[in-house]
Write a structure and sequence with these properties.
The complex is a heterodimer of chains A (563) and B (470). Chain A has 563 residues and is an alpha+beta fold. Helix content of chain A is 23%, strand content 18%. Chain B has 470 residues and is α/β, with parallel strands linked by helices. In chain B, the strands form four sheets. Chain B has a five-stranded mixed beta sheet, with no helix packed on it. Chain B has a four-stranded parallel beta sheet with strand order 3-2-1-4, with helices on both faces. Chain B has a two-stranded antiparallel sheet with strand order 5-6. The model of chain B has no long low-confidence stretch (mean pLDDT 94). The chains are: A alpha+beta (563), B alpha/beta (470).
Amino acid sequence: MSPAAAAPSAVEAVVAPLGMVNIQVDGKWVQVPKGTRVIEAVSKNGTYVPRYCYHPKLSSPGNCRMCLIEMGPPKMGPDRKPVIGPDGYPEISWIPRPQICCSSDVAEGTGYRSQSALIDDCRKGVMEFLLINHPLDCTICDQAGECRLQEFSVEFGTGESRFLEEKVKKPKKVDLGPRIVLDDERCIMCSRCIRFSKEIAHDDVLGFTERGSHTVLTAYPGRQFDNNYSLNTVDICPVGALTSKDFRFKMRVWFLKETKSFCTSCGTGCNTTIGTRENVMYRQTPRENNDVNEVWMCDHGRLNFHFVQHESRLTQPLIRQQSGIYEPSRLAEAVAEAAGQLRHFKGEEIAMIASARATNEELYLAAKLARQLKIQLFDIVPRAQKADGILVSEDGNPNTNGARLLKVASDSPGRYVPVIANKVNDGSIKALICLGEDAAACGATPAALEKLASLVVLGILPSPTTAAATVILPGAAFSEKRGSMINAKGRLQRLNQAITPPGNATDDWEILRDLVAAVGGGNGIYTIEDLFRQMAGEVPALAGLSLSKLTDLGVDLKDKLSL
Amino acid sequence: MVSIVKQPHPRERRLIFKNIDRPGWANDIQTYLADGGYADLKKALGMKPQEIVGEMKTSQLRGRGGAGFSCGMKWGFIRPDEKKPVYLICNADESEPGTFKDRYIIHQDPHQLIEGMVISCFAVNARLAYIYIRGEFPEGARILERALAEAKEQGFLGKNILGSGFDLEIYVHRGAGAYICGEETGLIESLEGKRPYPRIKPPYFPAVLGLYMSPTIVNNVETLCNAKHIVRMGGAEFAKIGKPNNTGTRILCVSGDVQRPGYYEFEVGSLTMGELLNDICGGPKPGRKFKAVIPGGSSAKVLRADEKFKIKTKQPDGSMVDKEIAFSDIVMDFDSLAAVGSMAGSGGVIVMDDSRDVVWALNNINEFYAHESCGQCTPCREGSLWMKKITDRLAGGLGVEQDPKTLKSVADNIAGRTICAFGEACAWPVQSFLDKFPAEFAAAAKHHLPENARTAADVLAPDRAGALHS
């Protein structure tokens, strides 16, 4: 050891602030939070590191070897302290072997290189290995367009194959469960689906059998991959191995228009992306929101959209004639008819069954309508269910908190629903307004509903209630409208319109606005933004907010709602 | 089990194999006790655990499984004040092709292993130990079970061993016949009841996060037997056997084209390759010449018998001098074999004479590794089978011009880029065979493949295409 090297360093070492570490990424020193995974730090501060098996929400097995980079700890002097260079940062002692960067967190004074001849060689090597036994039939593969193999092939693949052998044959079209089909030949054994099932869905059901290149993915003997989260594996499968029975071969993904929305199948409100083409909804996929659903959603919610395209959708405003025959009408006529009917009754003769599946904007107008008509008896239909401890909420309604906040729901939401049903059945209620709910399912008998002098129904699908309605107002489904809801945890989120309502069906808030205006006079609201602004002006918890301020990820109102 | 009755060669030094093939020897505890067995355990229990670890360090013993890691240093990773349980695992998954030493200890001298294990467990404060024995050794497993029961009956195992207050249980766990279970983290996964996918290191170094995420020592059978002798002799005395940094004895398993194949135990570094093959093993078969030797199990790099090696040797004054040595002058120790570009590995010396087709030999090795790759990580999973398919064609007369180049590049894309050392194990034979025998491979790669060929077999032997790819 030369005396110069042993002498104390003349340069002061750069010290990172508390909770941060100094790291060198592609030659540049940066400070990143302690605990950051190296792959994230390098991708953010250097260049994107390709990966297959790594998923930020799952454990890291380090098996795909695509994220190999060069690493080096700080060079240590004879005093076991880092040797500080003239720039105040440690000199780096590079490890000659490439290292995976998906399984370790950043360490003080460490250097990372994601761009070098060695790394380029590693990535090209792994790409080639992944492709030699992979069926190169992208043209008929459902994953095409959102396939990691395709994406990274552009950067790290070669135009021609050196592989002169026969590919390994494996099972095709394997029925893994009620919603999932597996093509084992496409599988690159990244094990994301196995880890997801075990770690997120708490259902240890998938595994590998056989060895080496003959490895196949399968469900455990006698088991089905049938948990309520199975379709998430289709999302995280980097290739076309796992496909959704519901979606596969229905539509090329590059044709899909993507609309940011959220799931309305329960009180969780998982954030979603709705994929549509030419006004047809093809799929819902979860969208990352770490305050709500991370990146997952349940299968029930994901697939709960086919009713939107059901052939029996209500598409035409209808007015029941004396003869009992329903006559089609323009919306304005139907609204005027409904208002005309309702105005005949005293407040205590009218009841309203509203829905906690409705948006805040709709509920705000419903409350207004109730006030105008002096209705005393109104409530929402509750949907208590069993929570699963993962994402499924114990509330089957997506907007109970909105209904509470806007005072459409009673203090104990749903407690007045049986009262309303009883009063409909005993004839003391003469007029009933059903907004998105079926009174028959709440206990009102079809005969009693028939006897009502006025039954105004706003809905999207036929039911025993619409069969007895005096006015039918066809509304819009969750993917056909805009508006906001407050999930069970108090997060205010925004629905965006992905498709238009069918036929002459109309966005519910517009129908309600017209009804309120017809009953009590208009107030010049033309857009849903205007409506939200008016609502925010009256409801303190929403003060200062607007639809655009909700952003794609929503706003937390937990404290304001004192939940 | 039929044991081959065979006298040790006069140049051997039988330490671990003292009782192997010994006339009148049986593998029961009475025989072992009558021979002074378990005396070293009594001595060890009178020592402090840290003293034993110290003796191991002084002994400079290097692991006998293949990697040659310092045993004392490995034990030293276990903190004396460790709060988690500490486990010790005896790796008896002896499956490196060409290696057959541990099985003889297990079959003929199981109590030597058990005594070594109890001492080792005492040293690292492990209260629970496992012998992970490969599935192909059912008789060995039965012998061990019986030996463990005998030892327990005599108070060498179980609660309060020999009144020392030290408790230990040892269980035999049988593998299911997978080479990868010899990789220590794969072994641990298997022992935990999972697929033996080797763990990533970091963070899963067994000494820190081993079995059940607790500190774990994994040692080879032969290594653990050595612990007993180190306690008896003392580390310093043991270190006098062999050479510095290459201490103790080494059991060499010689197989293949020699007159007298078999196992031999020598002081490490006490003989050269030439002495081993010619003096001990009787030279090549009549009329034959040595062609190549794989000196440390099938994954070690092959050496040519007519090769000259440039090595650096240390002079008495400490300076390094370049020296050229012949194949027969290679000293059989860890450092010398590393210096000529191979390794002492597991001690399996595989000898090939001039009757052997090296392309066939490499294909044989490739077939083994393609079959044994666990399939967890990409380069090894895909590369090992690819290499096998190429050598399969080469050996079957369907080689094409580009094969050697492709083969080398596939091996290069595996080595150093996998989770465990299997990557090197399957790449090194390919790299070294291609490097040492380019002419043979070029000769096998004789066909020219038309540009638009889909697969080589389709074009060259359409009738055999299917059979080649099973």
